[in-house]
Amino acid sequence: MLARYGGSCYKFPMKQQVRVSLWEIFKAFFFIGATGFGGGMAIVSLTERYCVHEKKWIGLDEFMHGLAFGQILGPFSLNTSTFVGCYLRGGVGGITAAVGFILPSFCLISLLSWLYFRFHEVPELQSALRGTNPVIIGLILVAAAGMTKAKVKGAGGWSMALIAFAAAAFFKISALTILVLAGLWSLIKAYYLREHA
Amino acid sequence: MAGIVKLAWVFLKIGLIFFGGGYVLIPLLHRIMVDQFHWLTLKEFLDGLALSQLTPGPLAMLATFTGYKAGGLAGALVATVFIFLPCTVLMLAISNRYEKFRNIDLIKNTLDGILPAIVGLVAAAAYSLGKTSLFTARDFVLLVAGFLILQFTRVSPMFVILGAGAVGLVFHF
User: Fold this and answer.
1) What ipTM does this complex have?
2) Looking at CA atoms only, how far is residue A12 from chain B in angstroms?
3) What tens digit of pLDDT does each residue of B94-118 get?
4) Residues 81-120 of A with CB under 8 A from B
5) What residues in A contact B121, CB-CB < 8 Å?
6) pLDDT at residue A9 above 90?
7) Does residue B109 fall inside a structural domain?
8) A184 in the same domain as A92
9) Same domain, A167 and A129
10) Which long-range contacts (CB under 8 A, 24 or more apart) does B134-139 make?
11) What is the rounded CA–CA span in Å between residue A58 and residue A60?
12) H or E stretch at A102
């Protein structure tokens, strides 16, 4: 299992690990922001690969909780970055991660906007995207497979995962709704376990 | 100057009601930018949407494009900062309390209980993207190759993604 702090009763779990420098956080999220093609979940898969598996900055549980909270307001890819930065270095870390993450796309979009409003043309990159999209799906699938192996256990876990998948993929129910319902369900279960344990 | 303040205020409001991710944002931005304030024509809006899908980062970077049209580079900066301000503040507030609340058993069990649902959401994103971009046998070959490389080697995803982009450009399929 990867570096995890979940469940331990340290008051400040983040003090247990080497303190990650703000520069390191900025660099990591700048890199993620610059290569995050393909929308929210592709970016999150990239972040998971880098922060959970390569750098071992944050455990998979904590990361996934951040992803869940990130569904509330605004783009969850940015929110997950903010969460990881904040987990590592508090508020300053969160802002560093958010700025690092947005900066490359901000520069690129500003440049492209300038070109666009000058020449009124969108660059012909569609065919390049046709090549990247399948690979990006592969990237998301690698993340999903790893999470499934680590976090989906038993009939209850599999049912919840499959229902959430079907609700999002086939019925277009919003991620926030799905997570709130799953949260209510597991709250009732946790409450029941506590009362009857 | 007044224009910039107005821009900041409009994007702050968008940031505050921006629930549910990028695809909710498209109709919202369209209404505000094209119909209400006439900052963009419909064609410019659609081209801006295409631009933000071509570039890395969240779809909400469409705000940068719109801000640029409405107020130049300063407008782009203001629009970007203010649309992301509410969600960043909210996330910081949640993350700061996360460690503390996680030590409460009931909350910990609830959070751990929803992990399978999150896995389902990640898989659903792959499915949705696949439905709109996997057509030919070559797409599937690239998918399998990408999956195998990323699953079994430590090659940086950046090279894999850029490599696939180059393949797309060269072969024009």
Assistant:
1) 0.88
2) 8
3) 998 998 888 888 888 888 889 999 9
4) 82-83, 86-87, 90-91, 94-95, 98, 101-102, 104-106, 108-110, 112-114, 116-117
5) 41, 164-165, 168, 175, 178-179
6) no
7) no
8) no
9) no
10) B134/A133, B134/A134, B134/A137, B136/B173, B138/B171, B138/B173, B139/A130, B139/A133, B139/A134
11) 7
12) helix A76-119
- What token pair was written down for B5? 């303040």
**Which two tokens mark A87?**
């987990």
**Which of the four pLDDT bands, split at 50, 70 and 90, describes residue B132?**
confident
Residue A183 falls inside a structural domain: yes
- Whether the predicted pLDDT of A187 surpasses 60: yes
What residues make up the domain containing A166?
153-197
In a domain, B77, yes or no: yes
Query: Is A122–B54 a contact, with Cβ atoms under 8 angstroms apart?
Result: yes
Minimum distance, in Å, between the CA of residue A82 and any CA atom of chain B: 7
Instruction: Specify whether B118 is located in the same domain as B83.
Output: no
- The alpha carbon of residue A183 and the mean position of all alpha carbons in its chain are separated, in whole angstroms, by 18
Cβ contacts of A180 within 8 Å, gap of 6 or more: none
What range does the domain containing B51 cover? 2-104
CB < 8 Å to A40, chain B: 21-22, 58-59, 125
User: What's this model's pTM, rounded to 2 decimal places?
Assistant: 0.87
Question: A31-67 pLDDT, tens per residue?
Answer: 999 888 877 889 999 999 999 998 899 999 999 999 9
Specify whether A81 is located in the same domain as A171: no
Q: Which of residues 83-102 of B touch A (CB under 8 A)?
A: 83-84, 86-88, 90-92, 94-96, 98-99, 102
Contacts of B130 (CB under 8 A, 6+ apart): A137, B143
Q: Is the pLDDT of residue A147 over 80?
A: yes
B88 shares a domain with B17? yes
